[in-house]
Amino acid sequence: MIMVLGFWLLHAAQVEIIADQFEVDQQKHVSLFQGNVSILKEQDILKAKKVTVHTDASNRPLSYVAEGNVTFSITAQGSDTYNGSAQKMIFDPNANTYTLYTNVKVTQKADGHTITGDAVFIDVASGTTKVLGRPKEPIRIIFDLGPQ
Predict the structure, then answer these.
(1) Total domain count for the chain?
(2) By residue range, what is the domain housing residue 60?
């Protein structure tokens, strides 16, 4: 369901980042965007209170860490849209993995499939997803089976 999320950060023609504040530490290879952060690529959007981008010595991204009321809407190559939210999302573009934490919800718009949990681990390359429930609350996956 959510295996296409990494596509937009890996194959971006142009990425626009909007924030109230920007800091960069070139020695540590860290860029910090804070306050009403929006990352836009074509029709895709990621919003958070804070986004930290870690890069290598050649300024290639190693990880994106979005924190604080994270929301996203991403359209896959097949034109299906995925909407979601969490308190924290980590994207590793080299491993093509996502880790979402705290009150995670991801919905596939076309068929209404929804995953909720406290932590979601997505490995796009292997096509695997692992979902952990909240304390005293199991994970929830909702499938819309259509008309009976």
Answers:
(1) 1
(2) 7-142
